[in-house]
Amino acid sequence: MRLGLIGYPLSHTLSPAMHTAALRTLGLGGSYVALETPGETLAQRVEEVRREYRGVNVTVPHKEAVMPYLDSLSPEARSIGAVNTIVNHAGRLEGHNTDAPGFLKGLEEAGIEYRGAKVLILGAGGAARAIAWALKQAGAQVRVANRTLQRAAQLQREFGLGEVTDDEWVLAGMARSSDLIVNTTTVGLKDPASTPLRAEWFPEKGTVVDIVYDPLETRLLREARAAGLKTLDGLPMLVWQGALAFELWTGVRPPIGVMYQAAQETLGA
Ligand code: SKM
């Protein structure tokens, strides 16, 4: 079974380690490899996948660009407007999005309540789309703060979200009144000194999630923990979106603990 990941660049991905460990543990054989794909070679790469692969994940910057090359889309991928998993049914390529349910699985595993929660999402890029859609579908009240208002307003219109803002003071009020705050920006990625939200603006109780996983504890999470809030790092979403993709390709539920361990070992290496 040939599996892989399409994106560019792919030097820091944990997916090959996670999926290889799952394939080995289950004795399925096969492989999962990083397929670095610069934009101008995307069409060619999709045809290679059609001929030779059971399925692939898709990551930045191709999650939207890959859609026109596929034969069908799951309802979730169509609504979110992004594909992170392709399943090859004998030459027919089907696009899915496992980022959205993967995010919710991570919350559930950690015992974080989100149905009916008052949520603030920081950022309005690709990851924010999947997360906003998933939380809204699950009945949360979703608000978005983003540096450019236009992108946040676009999400608001498409998914029927609550308030959106690009204003720091409005953001402060939104943060203070949230049960759940989710950082989807890259602020904090490989930078232990920067944070997307001032600690003075934290709510008195609730949860802060950062989908960044390098470092596992960002400044945002460190400060949230110090303020007595519950925290969740970016690994659960990554592992669960991978596990759901694995199940789509193989029909087998992968060993989650093995995938977590492989991802953690690769991060620590
Ligand atoms: O959606 C996922 C993708 O399936 C794999 C990935 C990675 O390996 O870095 C990141 C996310 O975009």
TrEMBL record:
Its EC number is 1.1.1.25. Residues 113-164 form the Quinate/shikimate 5-dehydrogenase/glutamyl-tRNA reductase domain. Shikimate binds at residues 13-15, 59, 84, 99, 213, 241. Keywords: Amino-acid biosynthesis, Aromatic amino acid biosynthesis, NADP, Oxidoreductase. The keyword Cytoplasm does not apply. Pfam families: SDH_C, Shikimate_DH, Shikimate_dh_N. It is an enzyme of class 1 (oxidoreductase). NADP(+) binds at residues 123-127, 146-151, 211, 234. Residues 234-264 form the SDH C-terminal domain. Residues 5-86 form the Shikimate dehydrogenase substrate binding N-terminal domain. The keyword Oxidoreductase applies. Gene3D superfamilies: Leucine Dehydrogenase, chain A, domain 1 (3.40.50.10860), NAD(P)-binding Rossmann-like Domain (3.40.50.720). Coiled coil: none annotated. One of its GO terms (molecular function) is NADP binding. Pathway: Metabolic intermediate biosynthesis; chorismate biosynthesis; chorismate from D-erythrose 4-phosphate and phosphoenolpyruvate: step 4/7; Aromatic compound metabolism; 3,4-dihydroxybenzoate biosynthesis; 3-dehydroquinate from D-quinate (NAD(+) route). It catalyses: shikimate + NADP(+) = 3-dehydroshikimate + NADPH + H(+). One of its GO terms (biological process) is aromatic amino acid family biosynthetic process. The active site is at 63 (proton acceptor). Involved in the biosynthesis of the chorismate, which leads to the biosynthesis of aromatic amino acids. Catalyzes the reversible NADPH linked reduction of 3-dehydroshikimate (DHSA) to yield shikimate (SA). Belongs to the shikimate dehydrogenase family. Homodimer. PANTHER family: BIFUNCTIONAL 3-DEHYDROQUINATE DEHYDRATASE_SHIKIMATE DEHYDROGENASE, CHLOROPLASTIC (PTHR21089:SF1), SHIKIMATE DEHYDROGENASE (PTHR21089). This is Shikimate dehydrogenase (NADP(+)). It comes from Calidithermus roseus. The lineage of its organism: Bacteria, Thermotogati, Deinococcota, Deinococci, Thermales. The gene is aroE.
